[in-house]
Amino acid sequence: MISSFPRTLVCDGIDLTLRRMAAGDEAALLAFAQAIPAHDLLFLPRDISEPKVIAAWVAEAGGDTLVNLLALHGDAIVGSATIVRDPRSWSSHVGELRVLLAPSMRGRGLGRQLMKACFGLAVDLGLEKLVAQMTVDQKGAIAVFQTMGFKPEALLHDHAKDRDGKRHDLVILAHDVARFEAQMDAYGVSSLDAC
To answer: How far apart are CA 171 and CA 183, in angstroms?
Structure first.
């Protein structure tokens, strides 16, 4: 699964390329991040609309802690999915899934496509659980994650503070990847087929 990129996909009639992040993506990533509403970035631990944060993100890509997928329309990044993991921690079986979409691509099925690809990657990485976090008012994103099998596990009050100093609650959702893989095996579907 990890080596099955790049690949093409169609979302709502739009041809996209899905590939791993690589050195040289900094300018396109920065343009993508700066086009996303600031509130939508609050679930991330860092402000990716800053050039130095993008540079650090790309530098970390390809290591053993970050697996990054980018969806491109032409040369423009329109979606990103990242699995963050720490293979040397007590929670080495858990990965955090972060999905970002350009406003123009929301409601077109790209988020689901990115999540499906990440399920396959999670299985390949030996992960048993995926978690995702977002602000509680991001009801559309929460609904998409729930339709993909994520369930609420925790609520963190006043956990994120926006640029204006306003505090926001974060909800943590979780997905049992091991159960997902067992269900796919029971139906005779491989991780790659699910994407």
So the answer is: 26
Identity at 150, one-letter amino acid code: F
* CATH code assigned to 7-186: 3.40.630.30
CB 166 within 8 A of CB 131: no
Helix, strand, or coil here: 29?
helix
The one-digit pLDDT tens for each residue of the chain (195 residues) are 566 889 999 999 999 999 999 999 999 999 999 999 998 998 898 999 999 999 999 988 877 789 999 999 999 999 999 999 999 999 999 999 999 999 999 999 999 999 999 998 998 889 999 999 999 999 989 999 999 999 999 999 999 998 899 999 999 999 998 776 666 665 665 443 333
Nearest to 98 by CA among 113, 115, 77: 115
Q: What is the per-residue pLDDT across 35-81, written as a single tens digit (0 to 9) for each? A: 999 989 988 989 999 999 999 999 888 777 899 999 999 999 999 99
User: In 3-state terms, what secondary structure has residue 177?
Assistant: helix
Longest CA pairwise span in the chain (Å): 51
Nearest to 81 by CA among 90, 96, 70, 65: 70
Residue 176: CA atoms inside 13 Å, Cβ hemisphere, count? 8
Q: How far apart are CA 67 and CA 82, in angstroms?
A: 6
Q: Are the C-beta atoms of 140 and 101 separated by less than 8 Å?
A: no
